[in-house]
Amino acid sequence: MSSKATIxxxxxxxxxxxxxxxxxxxxxxxxxxxxxxxxxxxxxxxAGLDNYTRMLSQWVFWRALINGFIYSFGTIIFQVVLGIxxxxxxxxxxxxxxxxxxxxxxxxxxxTVVVVLTFKWMVDGSIGVLTTMMSAVGLPQVQWFESxxxxxxxxxxxxxxxxxxxxxxTFLAALxxxxxxxxxxxxxxxxxxxxxxFHITLPMLKPILTVxxxxxxVWMFNKFDVIWLLTQGGPVGATEHLAILSxxxxxxxxxxxxxxxxxxxSFAILSLVVFIYxxxxxxxxx
Amino acid sequence: MSRSSPRSLAGxxxxxxxxxxxxxxxxxxxxxxxxxxxxxxxxxxxxxxxxPGPFTWEYYTNLLELTDYPTQFLNSLIVAAVxxxxxxxxxxxxxxxxxxxxxxxxxIIVGAMxxxxxxxxxxxxIPMFSIFAKLxxxxxxxxxxxxxxxxxxxxxxWFLWGFFKSMPFELEEAAMVDGCTRLGAFxxxxxxLSLPGLITxxxxxxxLSWTDYTYAxxxxxxxxxxxxxxxLASMVGSFDLRWGEIMAxxxxxxxxxxxxxxxLSQYFIQGLGAGAVKG
Lengths: 286, 279
Prior knowledge:
Chain A: Pfam families: BPD_transp_1 (PF00528). Chain A: The chain crosses the membrane at residues 69-90, 102-123, 150-175, 196-219, 256-278. Chain A: Keywords: Cell membrane, Membrane, Transmembrane, Transmembrane helix, Transport. The complex is a heterodimer of chains A (286) and B (279). Chain A has 286 residues and is mainly α. Chain A has 13 helices and two strands. In chain A, 73% of the residues lie in helices and 1% in strands. Chain A has a two-stranded antiparallel ribbon with strand order 1-2. At the A-B interface, helix 1, helix 3, helix 4, helix 5 and helix 7 of A face helix 1, helix 4, helix 5, helix 6 and helix 7 of B.
């Protein structure tokens, strides 16, 4: 087989599999959003834009959209701030540093189910360890999943715990790329550590920070499992975002067209973010 | 940012304090999961001690003898192993072809992969469920594997593209001058040299598949076909909460990951830095 034939057969085979696995389902999902279908094996009936007008005219849709923004915004802020803080500490030299670095990554490795179940156990009723610790230091009892605000806070808290390591590790790697001569020079000029952080570290790492924020924004906006496992979108829809709404429509109410329409709308929103990403960071294909 | 100057006492105390705080914050829930999974029932409910014990293995034996956990563990292993294998084969092919040949639109191919990695899960899950139901293959491990591939394949191509790109072309060219075919050069020269990259892709594909809850929840209905994450989550829904067994089950899912991390952390960290990331 000639060299060219090998490469082309690789490419064609690979792309055929990708098209079948990813492109076809997405096209199918988008097309489903224009049909009315109340069973997964039933015959679809053309509905035009009905699914969209129906979903967009409902208050639950807008609530889900806003909840999605609150959730992704809240999780990103805390992940980034904590992640940068952790990276700055772990960048210092101290005995046992590698152990602490290793420990700080562990939350990221855990399946969401494990994290959520452990959190639920830790705050369980009157016997959870977090509950007893909090009452021991005199903090009031929190009903983690009862009130809308507390439910949103707990999904954000759990998500931040799980994904902060991503920011820590990426930022820690990026810190190594800042030339130490810059810090030396700034030190000679009599600056303090805080000034050096804001005037050297942050500006130097702005590109990587933008990447982190954009990627995390997309993923948090898409996140289904944490919220579903913790609150199922409750209480009374207070933590329901677009992914949960789409799931409920399609698999709870068997309104498959409506579910597909919500999924397509979140797809459109996130495509906008991806578009911005590629404008800011064009691929280097050479 | 290495500091050469000796640190003041206050500075050292603050640093150690911060490091301890990070360690406790990151590891305490995991520690507590393991402690709870081995603490005798009476103490599990009453004891406020943060130290482990009194010990028992009964949750583990209950879990392994009285529930579907062993079957589900095996299901998870099968799903993850097949996902990793298929991901490796096709992502290597695409990434290699894209880096080693002037192909028009290769920027689009690579960009599309990164894009695909960010698709909303329901955008894939709704049509997948419908397709598999129509094929009569609903509620099978195959349907879970295929939906995991929609995540791992783009990830693999994206990462290996970066990896192959940085590998000098001269290596294969030299082999080909010596009489190797393109395929021969690829199998004997490129693949062995790419081992670190391949291991990284394998780790992240495994991680994505092993930890997935969303797709398995949607694709699988019967207890016998559930993967561990879904099986474990459905234990919580049942009438009495058996925290001991639930924590034992959680520990058993997490342990293989920690074991792999201890052995392969360098590849893991390298992968994180290079953009192979688990959402």
